[in-house]
Every structure is written in C-alpha cells, then in structure tokens.
Amino acid sequence: MRLPRLLSAPALLAIASAALAQPAAPPVVVAQVELAQEADELVLSGTATARRNSRVSPPTDGLVTEVLVDVGDRVKKGQALVRLDKVIAEHELATAQAALDEGLARLADAQRKRDEAAEVHARALIADTVYESAVAEASIQAAAVERLRAEYERRRELLDRHTVRAPFAGIVARKMAEAGQWTQRSEALLEVVDTEVLRVDVAVPQDYFADVQPGTPASIRFDAMPDEPIETRVTTRVAVGDPAARTFLARIELANPGLRFTPGMSARVVLRPGGQDGGGVLRVPRDALLRLADGSYRLWRIQGETGAPVARPVSVEVRRFAGRFAVLAPGAVEAGERVVVRGNESLRPDQPVQVVAPAR
Length: 360
Known about the structure:
By secondary structure, the chain is α+β, with helices and mostly antiparallel strands. It has helices at residues 9-21, 87-122, 128-160; strands spanning 27-32, 34-36, 42-50, 53-56, 62-67, 74-75, 80-84, 163-165, 170-175, 182-183, 190-193, 197-205, 217-222, 230-233, 236-242, 247-255, 266-271, 281-284, 290-291, 297-303, 310-316, 318-321, 324-327, 338-342, 351-352, 354-358. Residues 14-22 have low confidence and may be disordered.
C-alpha cells in the first residue's frame, strides 16, 4: 500500500495562510419577497377644517344697537345677526323718497305740457321752437327722475346695510361686539363657521401625484371616534406642490349632518390609489432597502439553497405600500425570493453569507 505523500513545510504554510485570509461568512437575517394582491394603501395624517370661515364685518360704519345672536348659535344664510343705529339713514331715505316724488310730479307736468304743445303744433298755432322746448323739458325731467330714483335706491341700500346678515349657514364661533359699541367697516363683529361640510386636507408625497386623483377611494378615522371609519373619496387634488416638503394637497369633503364632527379634529386618512396594473405588487420590508447617494435603492438577494448562499446586489425602483415598500421594476426580484434585512450594510457582491434567522 502506498502511503500518501507528505506535503512540504512551505506548502502547508501556504494553505494555512490562505485559510486565514478567507473571511468568515457574515451572519444575515432575511425575509421573503411577498406578492400582495390588495390595493395600495397610503396612510397619512389630516385635520378637519371648515369649508368656509368668515369674520363678519359691517358694510358701513355705525353704532351697534343690538346683537341678535350669541356664541354657539346656529344661523341660516341671510339671517340678521347685528343691527346698527339707522335713524339718520332712515331720514336720508325719506328725503330721497320725497325728492323722487317731486321729480315724478315735475315729469308728469312736463309730459302734459309736451303733449298739449304737440296738439297745438300740429295745427301750426305755435312756433317750432316752443314745441321743441316742451319736448326738451320733458326729456330733462325724465333724466332727473332717473337720477333721483338711483339716489333713492342707493339710500335704501345704505339703510339695509345697517343690518349685518349671515353670509352662509353655520355656527357663531366668536362674538366681538356688544350693543353701544361704535364699529367701522374694517372691524369684525362675529365669526361664523360653516359646519355643514368639513374638509380633511392631507399632504401626499409627490411620488403619488399621478395616482391620487379626484375619486380615489379613501377611509377616514377621526381620533375622537376611532371605531367609526368613514369610507369616502378624494374630492380635490391641488396641483401645486410644497417645494420644501415635496408634497401636494389632497382634499376630502365630508357632509356633517347633526354636527358629528367639528373643525380641528385630527384624523387618520388612508388613501387607496390601487395596485400595479391590477396584478398585485411585490413587497419587501423597509429594512431590505438601502438608499444610495443618488436617491436610488438597492437590495441584496440571497441565491443558493444548498452549500454557502451568496448575496448579490439588485438595483430597484420602489414605492411605499401600506407600511412596506413595493418593487416596481419587473424582473428585479421574484415572489418567494429571500432578501437581506439585517447585516446588509457592508456586504460585497457574491459574498458568502450565513443566514441565521428569518425576519420577524
């Protein structure tokens, strides 16, 4: 029997050095890529605001004689809220009415004289100039009546402005005036808030601008009523972004019968722009993604079921879906494939790794 040939000392030293130079496979934690069929969900925070909020000012300067409402009162559109002293305005309107009546009487007399002059002029019993003067006087008086009527309407409008009315239906939120107070047109007397319809505004990341449209399904849970979700839809998308936050505004309007909700309530809003082409999305945990300096993403997938598995990098395009991230580029990874979620910060391409535990 032949004995195995013994290796020389230099050969043994080379093998030992190579073994020492070989780095140990680093431990990594992995997770599987999931194929999700449910719709895309974008979870955001929002705040309920009133559709309309008006600080009601008087249309004219004057002395407040009566405040007809108080804080918390519900008012209808056009309802009288505050009355100003209108004695002088009533006298001015009466003066304008008297002047108009006088003008109408003068016009009637001028028209009668014009008609009589027309009959006499037809029989050639008066000069043409006399007849033309009668016609001109009737026209002058008609113009004067129009001027006096316009003045009367102006005075009547000024008198009506001494009553401050509700611009829309709502609730009186603040009262800043009392009887006996002198007020000016620049001063607010009351604050009226429209509570019939509320708005919930949310700041949506710019990546979703093409997906979030009027009509996009949404769900709202107010923090004050977490067990009462409201299924609704996006009402408006404001096509002007915030350059600092890289977001745009999506608005949802909610009918508020019975005043169940109030402006200022915080809410959790879930938008559902929909899945990718109706065929589901490939989801990966957030920790599987490494963001590079240029803003792109990379993940490490594990290949090799037997022996020493190795990690290989893959560049991917992603979007956030319901707390996880979805891979958008087709063919980058497959459903069921393993990706590294822990220990991926210092990996090298085709580096052997030791899978220690699945991600929880």
